[in-house]
Known about the structure:
Blueprint: H1 2-22, H2 24-30, H3 40-63, H4 66-89, H5 94-115
Amino acid sequence: MTDLLNLTCALLTVALGLFGFLAPRYTARVLDLAPTHSTMGLSEVRASTGGLFVALGLGCILLGTPMAYAMMGIAYTGAAAGRIVSMSIDNPPQPKAFLYFFFEAVVAAWLLWANF
């Protein structure tokens, strides 16, 4: 069961990363980001919400070790921490921000609990 849930988390990470990697304009719109005077924002979306997550998920699948999956859990912990700080300070749209936080926190909790 642990292997299946780890793989599911990694595949979800890859799938979500592919949106940023292959469809940065769509991803930017969903995340309420907007390109300004250049396309550098699209480059950042492709890199940080795209390629980074694709590589993270694929790395876990290829390595297949508990430590690889735990590291992905640490990455999701960082994302959840950033989200909770943002929810406290930046006042983003709370239902949307909480949904993202919940996903990040659940994935982080599972990966850390199951793989450490």
